[in-house]
What does this fold into?
Amino acid sequence: MTNLPIIQSQKEADRFGRRIAVRLTAGTVELPYAITERLRAARVQAVDRRRAANLVRASSVFASGGAATLAFGDGGVSLWNRIASALPLIALAAGLILIHAVQDDRRASEVAEVDAALLTDDLPPSAYADPGFAQFLKSGRN
It folds into this structure.
């Protein structure tokens, strides 16, 4: 809940603004009509700007279910946004291809080691397929 202090400070700022508005409204009773109209127009503009700022901020993040979605704003989805969105997927695919290639190389070198050991050993390769050889290995005699 890291947004809690920010939300509370915004609420305090709104409360402070309302108190100032009440005092300003009370002080306009003895002012001429032209000045009160200008003040009213300035207040309307300030409130409209505040609402517009809140709408822009609120429209950039949408909640859907248990997840939040970040919107691209009023400009829509540009070419750079699409490229930036596709980069993680491309990096993931490249990483998977690299892992697959490394694993294939590792398996090939392991098989080559076993083959080299079999071919350079004193026993012929057919001895390893003999059922008696497996019994010989289990008995532990060398």
User: Anything to note?
Assistant: The chain has a mean pLDDT of 78.
